[in-house]
Amino acid sequence: MLGHRILSAAFLIMALTAIVMASRGWMTIFVPTAVSLMAVVGLLEFYHLMEQRGFQPLRRWGVCFSVAYIFIIYFVSLKTIPPFEEAALMPVYVAIISAAVIIVFRANISTALSTLASTLAGFLYVTWLIAFCLRIVLWRGAEKMDGRWFFLFFIATVKVSDTAAYFIGTWLGRHKLAPSISPKKTIEGSIAGAVASMATGAVLAVCLPVVSGVFHDCGEFIIDGAGRWLAALLGAVAGLLLGVLGQIGDLAESLWKRDAAVKDSGGYIPGMGGVLDVVDSLLFTAPLMYLFMKFFDWLQQMIHA
User: Fold this and answer.
1) What is the dihedral of CA 244, 245, 247, 250, to 10 degrees?
2) I want to staple 278 with a disulfide (CB 3.0 to 4.6 A). Which of 9, 112, 156, 283 is the partner?
3) For 150-195, how does the pLDDT look when each residue is reduced to its tens digit (9 = 90+)?
4) Distance from first CA to last CA of the chain, Å, rounded?
């Protein structure tokens, strides 16, 4: 059973990566479609956890608003609609107002506050965070900046960390990392995950097309003539930060499940514990990768100015 879940999770991540890397021209529409499907399933799973604690989130609002928000980001990237969503607080503002209007018209005073809190928590934790994966893919910055390759860097470092932490922790783990939250996670596994993400980041920073060019230029900008070794060091640092934050995201999702007294986040996809169990490490790390890319883009503009 566990083997089937691991294979199902691996298939989901590989399918998403394949869709991203194949996204050219009209095929880019499949990227927001895939991300919105993952967001909707993950959101419904999160709302299920909230319902186990007695909350009553607005499920249909969450689904509709999530799909709309992700496709707004997509169409803004194509410049087919004005970039109003770039205002940092606009999505949160619209989410609060629209959810509040529904709750006011329902006039259920006894659950009004908990419904608003649980509904918005799901949107922010799942949809808003996972939408940064789409922002990474659609990024078209300065010279050499192609978001698809940076998404590959991102997904590889985070998931290699997850895999190493799981297998090394299972085989060699002796000291519990957070027994009250996730009894199977170990300190040995966590260290292995961090080391694996560092190594992956270092290798990809000098070998992966497009990404290697950006890391190389950044290294040359910092120390003239440093070239590949500094690019590898920068990649290792980025990989370490992504790997560690991914593990924190994994622990956070385990905490939500522990609070809701459930083993898996959901069962919408047969053979898989839940979509949240697969993407939990991506939710906290996608915004960080996006910030890395903003920094890289600024540095590229400085270099080529």
Assistant:
1) 180
2) 9
3) 999 999 999 999 999 999 998 888 899 988 888 889 999 999 999 9
4) 55
Single pTM value for the model: 0.91
Give me the residue label for tokens 């991540």.
13
| Stretch 198-216: mean pLDDT | 94
DSSP for 87-122?
STTHHHHHHHHHHHHHHHHHT-GGGHHHHHHHHHHH
Structure confidence by residue, pLDDT tens digits, 109-153: 888 999 999 999 999 999 999 999 999 998 876 555 789 999 999
Contact 136, 150 (CB under 8 A): yes
The pair of three-digit structure tokens given for residue 19, joined into one six-digit string: 């869709």
Quickly tell me which residue has 């922002």 as its tokens: 135
Q: What is the DSSP string of the chain?
A: -HHHHHHHHHHHHHHHHHHHHT--GGGGGHHHHHHHHHHHHHHHHHHHHHHHTT----HHHHHHHHHHHHHHHHHHHTTSS--GGGSTTHHHHHHHHHHHHHHHHHT-GGGHHHHHHHHHHHIIIIIIHHHHHHHHHH---STT--HHHHHHHHHHHHHHHHHHHHHHHHHH--SEEETTTEEEEEHHHHHHHHHHHHHHHHHHHHHSTTHHHHHHHHHHHHSTT-THHHHHHHHHHHHHHHHHHHHHHHHHHHHHHHHHT-SSS--SSTTSS-HHHHHHHHHHHHHHHHHHHHHHHHHHHHHT-
| Number of CB atoms found within 10 A of residue 34's CB | 21
Close Cβ partners of 62 (under 8 Å, ≥ 6 residues apart): 43, 44, 47, 119, 122, 123, 127
The alpha-carbon radius of gyration of the chain (Å, integer) is: 20
CA distance 272 to 104: 37
Residue with tokens 């021209």: 25
For residue 23, the model assigns a pLDDT of: 84
